[in-house]
Amino acid sequence: MLEWFTSPEAWVALATLMALEIVLGIDNIIFISILVGRLPPQNRAKARRIGIGLAMVSRLLLLFSLSWVMGLVEPWFSAAGQEISGRDIILIGGGLFLLAKSVHEIHNSFEPSEHRAASGATAGMLAVVLQIAVLDIVFSLDSVITAVGLVDHLSVMVIAIVASVVVMLVAAESIGQFVDNNPTIKMLALSFLTLVGFTLIAEGCDVHVPKGYIYFAMAFSFAVELLNIRLRNRTAG
């Protein structure tokens, strides 16, 4: 199982997969941070840990069910001349859910502060964790399929996924605080989550969208917004 330890190619594959898993986890962290922000401050850290823990569990469960995951790629039925697989159904359903949730959060951002406070008070721990769990499954499917396509050794996949989740766990709190303290960053994150939702739906309809373009657009927009924040802080100072 660990014969790859002496293979330089396997170590390169491990480093590459870890980097990709961390990048794929960015969407997960942003979504968790936004949902956790609806909870009272004393519950946020616990919900964040539970959400990221569920992300790791769902990834590992899918990884150890490779035959089932690979079976999801096979067509289940045809509709309007289009072959539909289990993966397509999960991606389309997850994309619709993410799209609806992102638009809902954007709409709430324009509500008066009193209304937001009231709606935030009704956001229970169980409801938030369930929403996180649903999207964890969708993001995990993408993550595991990427891992299977890059690496042959199961132990390498497990190490990469666990390492990426540890990075998510370490970074999630600071990312969440940064998003909460900067409303424009939160709006930018929600806008990109709607884009990710559209991308998932497109992937489910067998329209391939290169993720490199999406992540480059996210990184570029984020960098521009950081410059705007710095400029506003200097002007205010």
TrEMBL record:
The chain crosses the membrane at residues 12-37, 49-72, 84-100, 121-141, 153-172, 184-201, 213-231. Pfam families: TerC. The keyword Transmembrane helix applies. Keywords: Membrane, Transmembrane, Transmembrane helix. It comes from the Bacteria. One of its GO terms (cellular component) is plasma membrane. The keyword Membrane applies. This is TerC family protein. It comes from Halioxenophilus aromaticivorans. The lineage of its organism: Bacteria, Pseudomonadati, Pseudomonadota, Gammaproteobacteria, Alteromonadales.
